[in-house]
Amino acid sequence: MMKKCILAVVCCLPLSLMAQKGFTINGKIGTLDAPAKAYLSYSNDGVKITDSAILHKGKFTFVGKLSSPVAAELMLKHDAVVTTERTGHDELSFYLENSDITIMAKDSIWRAAVKGSATNDDDNTLRALQRPYRRIADSVMNVYNSWTPQQRKDTVFTKSLGAIMRSTQVGYDSLNRAFIAAHPDSYISLRVFKDLELAYNFNPDTAAVKFARFPASMKASALGKQIAAAIETGKKTNTGVLAMDFIQNDTTGKAVKLSDFRGHYVLVDFWASWCKPCRAENPNLLKAYNKYKSKNFTILGVSLDEEKGRRAWLGAVKQDGLPWTQVSELKGFKSKAAVLYGVSAIPTNFLIDPNGKIIARNLRGEELDRKLATLFLM
């Protein structure tokens, strides 16, 4: 009777309390011996961890504990000379989780088979499903790369390849969404969700609804928390929301606030001197600025250059002939404004009305001109 009671109590324990076991990796790579050494690298709750183990007759072991599955790298140093067909290190990328994992191969880590990680199995399954789409995309790019500069200017050719790529992308995205729906409790689904639904210019409201379908265990993982934070930041920078204020120094060292532009339509443009798409977009911004600057429109450039790039930043402003206010903390993507607005790729911009409300995001070229025309040419 006592045993039944204990069993009943154990069965009622939350899974998080029962799953206290960490991971064990048992590896076997041929008959390699010292000085052969294996190095395991991964991050746990944002902390970078690197462990090592000496091989004895090909065998090595790693133990540890994770808060959630993670991507990991296993590198093998055979001896003074790397004996592998690959250039550089003998490496293996795989997914690590709290389970008993075996990694085995006859000679090289990169040829090894990984068993015991359900997350790794899911990743292999998805990659196999994605392979036909990746092959088509690779073939299209090979064709494009084989063209001469003159052929690339032919819109007939480029449109035909573009149609194939768009169709392939639609199929690829549909496949990924089907995988997520069929594997809601997989860490791989969470990773794919981040890439798919939190892509450039994503809709935070739609992403929030889809993210809510994941189980609590996935939401509580390190990646789940990152996604939740990105969605919340997206909501704070969505159209219709009051723009968050920030302050940075301009090119002369003068402090400038976003709120200084109240009463004007202002395009907050996140860019950098090293960003080719940003520099390519600058002529479009200059055209819009000159066309509408007399109609209560201006631009605030926020550079994500770093301190070592100060000269390049100032040089780019001069070279591209940008007359509007330019500010920067020279901290790259760690800039407070970039973090505040969730900027992870550039160019990124936000159009703010005279009341300080965000009315559009990521307007480019003709799209920017059309939006401004609706505001000023009515």
State the main characteristics.
elongated, 42% helix, 378 residues, disordered N terminus, alpha+beta, single chain, five-stranded mixed β-sheet
Task: Describe what this molecule looks like in 3D.
Helix content is 42%, strand content 23%. It is α+β, with helices and mostly antiparallel strands and 378 residues long. Strands 13-12-11-14-15 form a 5-stranded mixed sheet, with helices on one face. It has a 4-stranded mixed sheet with strand order 4-1-7-8. The longest helix has 29 residues, at 118-146.
- What value does the Rg take, in angstroms? 26 Å
Total DSSP helices: 13
Q: What does the overall shape look like?
A: elongated
SSE order, one letter for each helix or strand = HHEEEEEEEEHHHHHHHEEEHEHEHEEH
Q: Helicity range of the residues?
A: 40-55%
Output the strand order for the largest sheet: 13-12-11-14-15
- How much is the average pLDDT? 90
Report the biggest beta sheet as strand number plus sense, adding barrel if it closes. 5 strands, mixed
Low-confidence stretches: 1-19, 82-87
